[in-house]
Amino acid sequence: YNYRKNSNREILSIEQAIKDNADIVNFSGGGIDFDEKESQIIGKNPDTVFIVAAGNNGQDLDSWSNSYYPASLPYSNIIPVGAIDGSGKRTDISNYGKKIKNYELGKNVSCFLSNKGGTTKTGTSMSTAIFSGKLIDKMSKTNNNGVNDVHKFWF
User: Fold this and answer.
1) Among 38, 58, 80, 103, which residue has the least CB neighbours within 10 Å?
2) 93, 83 in Cβ contact below 8 A?
3) Which of 61, 71, 90 is nearest to 30 (CA)?
4) Tens digit of pLDDT for each residue in 49-104?
5) How far apart are CA 150 and CA 23, in angstroms?
6) Quick count: other Cβ atoms within 10 Å of Cβ 123?
């Protein structure tokens, strides 16, 4: 796994989304390593909301030593999403803490992978994608002002 190579791809993707005036960016990724460029891009674009994975370490993100990025960044335009199972219980692997106010299904989620076909996956990346889709769907059905109204749509 080449973290830096993937990080550079993520940065390019975020830059393109901002260039395209995206109101919401689904960021189903992250890690324990702080990335200055990632932090700067998110911080300098407060009109773009980043729905981010809380991480799959089963740790309390309120403790600095358990930081997971970008979920642990201090910006108000970040919405971290944790994982729950089908009964609504937080999964053992999902990170948690005061900043994680939103949870979505993240255990045994049906998905399609190009190299495996239909399968199931578990983790906060799955939760993040589901949450992003629900948020966008809800916003599309109302008269809203884009990113300025995102906070009132948090479930």
Assistant:
1) 58
2) yes
3) 71
4) 999 999 999 999 999 999 999 999 999 999 999 999 999 999 999 999 999 999 99
5) 9
6) 19
